[in-house]
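We emphasize that the prediction below concerns an isolated chain of 198 residues; any contacts that depend on oligomerization or on bound cofactors are therefore not represented. The input was used exactly as deposited, without trimming of termini.
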Amino acid sequence: MGRKYYELLSIDSVDTLRSRMFFKRESSDDSYSMHLEDGLIEMKRRMRELIQDGVTFRNCIVTGHGSSGHIKVCSDSITRRVWYDHFYRQGFDRLFPKSDGRLYFGGCNVAEDPHGWAFLAAAARSLMSNGGGSAFGWTSVGFGSPFSGHERHLWGDTKAVMVSAGGDTLRYYRNWNLITDAEGNPTLPEEGVDESDY
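Result of the prediction step, given as a token string:
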């Protein structure tokens, strides 16, 4: 691989409807696409190959079927526990060394309820803690647009978890507004963050 930096790493499953039809993202001058056939094992292997080749990115989009607190990559569900067991502190954050990187989950309801907060926090810590960045997703069903190739969420909230460089500090955002207590200090979401296995 000749190039060493891209703005976007796009990860999707070749078995998703979006990939089979109108919405397959192809690599371009600013993006690198990773179309997966074998799920989590292939995703980790290919990400390690990018690290070994010295390739880095600013942002990442993971597209697949989702529900509260998980997203499907082929037949594998990636949950909070999977992020911590397979990615956290294993060097995958070296793919995203720049500050203010974004990790977007293009799957329905990924950020819904306390499981969604825990999923976003684990993903941010696992992939964005090198330079600091955020993981975000929606609490609603998404619809793929045949015109733009992007997923649209017509209702629900956008939730984001921002991690500091080094991964020590988390900040929680709802609809791009920092969640704070009565004194204006950053705090946990009102509904909590469910760290239980599910």
